[in-house]
Write a structure and sequence with these properties.
Blueprint: H1 18-34, E1 40-41, E2 48-49, E3 53-55, H2 60-64, E4 67-68, E5 73-77, H3 85-97, E6 106-110, H4 114-121, E7 127-132, E8 140-141, E9 154-159, H5 169-179, E10 180-187, E11 192-193, E12 200-201, H6 208-215, E13 222-223, H7 228-234, E14 238-243, E15 265-270, E16 286-287
Parallel strand pairs: 6-7, 6-9, 7-8, 9-10
Antiparallel strand pairs: 1-2, 3-5, 4-11, 10-15, 12-13, 14-15, 14-16
The structure holds zinc ion (ZN).
């Protein structure tokens, strides 16, 4: 499929009745009052909460290997809009650390997170392309190990929680790197173990139940370890790791207003080149 075949679909009809407007106005006032009582706030829908809902799978391996970005979390899902902690971190990172909300860029979003995609669809200055392997609810079907776009096509890529599903992840990483423009950047989140020095993968484990026991999810083929940045580097990326807790003022303060996971880092890969035009984060974060 060529770039030309892509058409943006309007998935956000906004027609509301006057009564619905009045009701939502009343709810907005109530919600504003809740902020004085409640500790947490959803940055997507603005609801104020005592706490978020629990979310995540409970397989023992997720606990034993201390996997961040997977596994069960007590304070994760917004009861109002359904977003989870890692979507909130992604959104706040894009908002606070990149120029995506002000600079025209061409952005590829693989397996898009629903709430983040909804926000990005509305940014008319972005040339926004959503893609995944199923083709459902995205603009184009795409196999990440055989990306149909030309070299140097995108200023930025968001590809989160995809690589752990892909047997040939080295090829997927180098394809992502190939389609980035020089100076382009990619956010590449994966579930990652705080304990494993080396990534654990075993492609002979193919059965769903066996994968759940080994990797914590039935369609995962590995658990990334501390060598994850090195794997990205082998594909050509300069990798930096961002820890939101080093800049709490922009991420909900020390009381963690937006209910983020304090152990979740943002992994950003750059392609060598000039970065001024790609709207990327400053390359000031810790070098992996
Ligand atoms: Zn929400």
């Amino acid at each position: 499929m060529s770039d030309v075949a892509i058409r943006e679909v309007d998935i956000h009809p906004t027609s509301k009745s006057p009564l619905a407007d009045r009701r939502s106005g009343f709810r907005a006032i109530l919600n504003r009052l809740r902020q004085f009582r409640y500790r947490y706030e959803c940055p997507f829908c603005g609801v104020h909460l005592k706490r978020f809902l629990p979310f995540g799978l409970k397989f023992a391996v997720l606990r034993e290997k201390q996997i961040v970005g997977g596994g069960y979390r007590e304070n994760a899902r917004c009861p109002s809009c359904g977003c989870i902690d890692r979507e909130r971190l992604l959104y706040l990172y894009l908002r606070n650390e990149t120029k995506l909300f002000e600079q025209p860029v061409r952005l590829l979003h693989v397996a898009p997170e629903a709430r983040v995609a909804e926000v990005l669809h509305k940014l008319s200055h972005i040339e926004y392309v959503t893609a995944d392997i199923s083709g459902a609810n995205v603009m184009t079907t795409m196999d990440i190990t055989r990306i149909q776009f030309a070299d140097d096509s995108f200023d930025a890529i968001i590809c989160n929680h995809v690589l752990e599903h892909i047997i040939d992840d080295a090829r997927a990483m180098s394809e992502l790197h190939r389609v980035l423009k020089p100076g382009g950047w990619a956010i590449l989140q994966v579930p990652i173990s705080r304990l494993l020095d080396r990534t654990y993968e075993d492609f002979s484990i193919a059965d769903t139940a066996a994968r759940e026991a080994a990797f914590g999810q039935g369609d995962h083929v590995r658990i990334y370890g501390k060598d994850y940045p090195a794997r990205l580097a082998r594909a050509g990326f300069a990798v930096r790791i961002f820890q939101w807790t080093t800049r709490p003022d922009r991420f909900g303060g020390s009381r963690n207003r937006f209910g983020l996971n304090r152990d979740e880092f943002v992994f950003v890969g750059w392609k060598a080149g000039r970065t001024e035009r790609t709207g990327g984060p400053a390359e000031r974060d810790q070098l992996a």
